[in-house]
Amino acid sequence: MADTFPEHSSPVYVIGGGPGGLATAAALRERGIRAVVLEKSEAVAASWRAHYDRLHLHTTRRLSALPGLAIPRAYGRWVARDDVVRYLEQYVEHHRLEIVTGVEVSRIDRAPDGEGWVLRATGGRTPSSPVVVVATGYNHTPRVPDWPGRKTYTGELLHASRYRNARPYQGRDVLVVGVGNTGAEIAVDLVEGGAARVRLAVRTVPHIVRRSTAGWPAQATGVMVRRLPTPLVDRAARAMNRLTMPDLAEHGLPLPETGLYTRVRQGAIPVQDVGLIDAVQAGKVEVVAAVESFEEDKVALADGSRISPDTVVAATGYRRGLDDLVGHLDVLDARGKPLAHGPRTAPSAPGLHFTGYTNPISGMFRELAIDARKIAKAIDRTSA
Q1: What pLDDT digit, counting tens, does each position of 88-107 carry?
Q2: Which residues form the signal peptide (predicted)?
């Protein structure tokens, strides 16, 4: 499209060059609103470039495209990490997005006149705008619990964000801590990559679902049910589990008593099976109790046992990392998540939008695309 930006208009600054930031910039550009994406790394899609090698989207190609550009069919139904990066690079070129790399925004302040926002960025930069969109990502800052004895542990301990593939762990005894989608997939990767022993420490047993059943993706079900009453979805999910899933109770993974959608509402997305079920049934992944502490070369578990793995991979999640950036603006809840999301802004912070800080059952990329269009519409309406 031709550039239609007013000659002296202030751009909308979008902080973060991941899928949420790029989608929002494209949606704004489509409405003739100039958007400048500020990315702290040297290239867009930085977090995707850093993910482990075998990662694929758990959502389908058709339901994961961002506004204005389909994901190429050649990338397959479940898009691989490298193809996600390639798609996001293509997305920037296709929409002719304005990206400034190597610029980290450390703080957002209200403008001195109370109208709009001033960004505190590297190099002493202080760009300002009436509208800012924060899209620094759901998985921003790796979180490792402060387990007693952690700092004196003599074995290898790394966060899952530093795991790339199983090659360094061939023939080794590895404990994976955390059974979200990342922990489950890393455990399978270690088994398939030749680790001598793989154990999976579980504190809260997750719901596990098939990524697809008879060709029907779990994401499509998530899209269909996300507006339905929680108890109804819980009952339907339990019935589907009986039909499609083996009983893993004897292996340490019983069906949780709390319903699947109730868990989703609490922020816990079900684990999509990409080989964990078979690995657990075959005894290749051993489910053990949660980690309680570290004692020199040993790991103490909640059931009183002690084990001595060579390596511990902490798949223990991430923090949103928004406190330093906007924590002083009273726009975050007690968990550090934005009080208002997408097209809505906090009453005390008009013009400050957030996108990508939920973990929806219907798929992150899909919801980022929807949010992008809504944010662009809201900005267009308020700036008219």
Answers
A1: 999 999 999 999 999 999 99
A2: none
Report the alpha-carbon distance of residue 275 to residue 198 in Å, rounded: 14
Contacts of 333 (CB under 8 A, 6+ apart): 339
CATH architecture for residues 12-140+320-383: 3-Layer(bba) Sandwich (3.50)
Amino acid at 221: T
Neighbour-count burial of 215, counting CB atoms closer than 10 A to its CB (0-12 exposed, 13-18 middle, 19+ buried): exposed
**Residues with Cβ within 8 Å of residue 46, at least 6 apart in sequence:** 17, 18, 39, 40
d(CA 356, CA 375): 12
Same fold, 12-140+320-383 and 142-314: yes
Residue whose tokens read 């930085």: 46
Quick one: which of 73, 101, 100, 98 has its CA closest to 87? 73
In CATH, the number for domain 142-314 is: 3.50.50.60
Angle at 48 between CA 45 and CA 53, to 5 degrees: 145
| pLDDT tens digits, 327-370 | 999 999 998 999 999 999 999 999 999 999 988 889 999 999 99
**Residue ranges covered by each domain of the chain:** 12-140+320-383, 142-314
